[in-house]
Amino acid sequence: MKIKFYRNIRTMSGLDKQANMVFSSYKNDQICIARNYVYPTLTDNNALFGQKIKAAANLFKTLSVEFIGDLVKYAHCYNYQHRKVDEMNLTGYNIYMKVIMSLSNVISDKEELGNSVGVTVAEWINNNKLPAVVTSESLNNLL
Predict the structure, then answer these.
(1) 58 and 104 share one domain
(2) What predicted TM-score, i.e. pTM, was given to this entire model?
(3) Which residues of 100-125 are buried (b: 16+ CB within 10 A; e: fewer)?
(4) Predicted confidence (pLDDT) per residue in 45-94, tens digit
(5) What percent of the residues of the chain are helix, what percent strand, and what percent coil, each to the nearest 5?
(6) What is d(CA 87, CA 79) in angstroms, rounded to the nearest whole number?
(7) Which of 27, 34, 82, 108 is most exposed by smallest CB count within 10 Å?
(8) Rounded to a whole number, what is the largest CA-CA distance in the chain?
(9) Is 14 within a domain?
(10) CA-to-CA distance for 4 and 69, rounded, in angstroms?
(11) 117 in a domain, yes or no?
């Protein structure tokens, strides 16, 4: 059955709470898909992931400016040496989150981070948490 919408399908996309339906557009707004809204079930992994993200974001605010500068230098070198053409550039924050999320437990302070991975970006590379890059600058500023 074909239906003519009185406005663009994209404006119809979203959740209709009264009907408990989800609408979205497909194939350049030529097709509209509707289905019943399904509430996702939360698992222990969801809770652990959320705790890790919150703790990592709070910890990033306490890191030294020099260490964050080292992360930015590393990200620039990594993007130049390892990034594939169709990938987006990484930032210092992306690299930090990559390392934190690779750890099995929730890290909430600098001491735990230093004990788990190391206190400098150079130690993170030596502990195989980050791929090695060629740089003329030292990456030895402390957390």
Answers:
(1) yes
(2) 0.70
(3) beeeeeebeebeebeebbbbbbbbbb
(4) 898 899 999 999 999 999 999 999 999 999 999 999 988 888 889 999 99
(5) 45, 10, 45
(6) 9
(7) 27
(8) 66
(9) yes
(10) 55
(11) yes
Does 78 lie in the same domain as 58?
yes
* 122 & 67 share domain: yes
Residues 6+ apart with CB under 8 A from 60: 93, 96
Residues 87-99 pLDDT 10s: 889 999 999 999 9
In contact, 116 and 59? CB cutoff 8 Å: no
Hey, what are 82's tokens?
């390892």
Domain of residue 57, residue span: 44-126
Contacts from 75-80 at CB under 8 Å and sequence distance 24+?
77/133, 77/134, 77/135, 78/130, 78/131, 78/133
Question: SS3 string of 11-59?
Answer: HHCEEECCCCEEEEEECCCCEEEEEECCCCCCCHHHHHHHHHHHHHHHH
